[in-house]
Specification:
The chain has a single domain, classed as TIM Barrel. About 45% of the residues lie in helices and about 15% in strands. It has helices at about 5, 25-35, 55-65, 80-95, 125-135, 165-175, 190-200, 215-225, 235-260, 280-289; strands at about 10-15, 40-45, 70-75, 100, 150-155, 180-185, 205-210, 270. Strands 1-2-3-4-5-6-7-8 form an eight-stranded parallel beta barrel, surrounded by six helices. With about 290 residues, it is an alpha/beta fold.
Length: about 290
């Protein structure tokens, strides 16, 4: 049963994996092996504009060697209109059927601040391109010999400063062909409920982002230094009380409790394991289900 078939019919759970910084795929495959209970693994596209292995390559290898469905993250940062379309067609030929359309972090935040960011389109434009390919033509209107059938994902931020604008953007992406949305990390059930009330009219399957807290320092860093992430005082207090030694277990408990309450509101969950600790995602999911 494909991810597209599962959406809206069962609670879907995915986990994000970063490609390696070199050519050794041993560790990513070992990590993927731990995640067989999940419906799919997300393959990031050079996050934070730092060089990593092609997500297309790793997504294909995980699918072929481990047998888990993959969600290819694709950004508009590094590819022009020609490359976006050719990479998408190549990915589909390799068995990759799910794509998360992202604008991407600008080169200025990474290791190559002088590199040129392409950005011929942003995420909305990429959704439109994928939809055109699905319909059998490229962006210029040329007919394809055979069309793909991508399941299209997008990103959404439930804690955005202007929730109305965020919902409007999600509607635009839905109208262009988006099938599901992955949220930024959420820690407040009140914020999630408020967002889902507004998102009911959009009719897109939403998977809530869950980033387990590793220790008190990790918690405070996310709350104070990462734009778009707000952690409730009650959660921060629990992490402080747990301390460095008990922080990991408390973080798993908090994630599991949040997931248990959230699963009646959303179509699934999207785990972002901290510091490559994939066992935290596995344990939180096992406790919640």
């Amino acid at each position: 049963m494909s991810l597209a078939d599962k959406l809206g019919k069962k609670f879907v759970m995915t986990v994000e994996i970063d490609p390696p910084r070199g050519v050794d795929i041993t560790k990513p495959l070992q990590k993927a092996e731990l995640l067989r209970q999940f419906d799919a693994v997300d393959i990031a596209d050079s996050p934070m504009a730092r060089v990593r292995m092609s997500p297309v390559a790793l997504a294909h290898l995980i699918r072929e060697r481990i047998g888990i469905e993959t969600i290819l993250h694709m950004t508009c940062r590094d590819r022009n209109l020609l490359s976006l379309q050719s990479d998408l067609l190549g990915a589909y030929a390799l068995g990759i059927q799910n794509v998360l359309a992202l604008t991407g972090d600008p080169p200025s935040v990474g290791d190559y601040p002088n590199a040129t960011g392409v950005f011929d389109v942003k995420s909305e434009g990429l959704v439109s391109i994928i939809s055109r390919l699905n319909s059998g033509t490229d962006l210029a209107g040329n007919k394809l010999s055979e069309s793909p059938s991508f399941c299209i994902g997008v990103a959404v931020n439930p804690t955005a400063n202007d929730p109305g604008k965020e919902i409007d953007r999600l509607k635009v992406k839905r109208d262009m062909g988006a099938n599901f949305a992955l949220t930024q990390p959420v820690y407040s059930m009140d914020e999630l409920k408020a967002f889902m009330d507004k998102a009911q009219t959009v009719q897109v399957e939403i998977l809530v982002g869950i980033l387990p807290l590793r220790n008190p320092r990790h918690c405070e860093f996310l709350h104070n230094e990462v734009p778009g992430i707000t952690i409730p005082d009650s959660v921060r207090a629990r992490m402080r009380d747990a301390g460095e030694e008990g922080g990991r277990e408390e973080g798993i408990a908090i994630a599991a409790e949040f997931l248990t309450e959230a699963k009646s509101l959303v179509s699934g969950a999207y785990f972002m394991p901290p510091f490559g600790d994939y066992e935290m995602a596995v344990q939180a999911a096992q406790v919640a289900f």
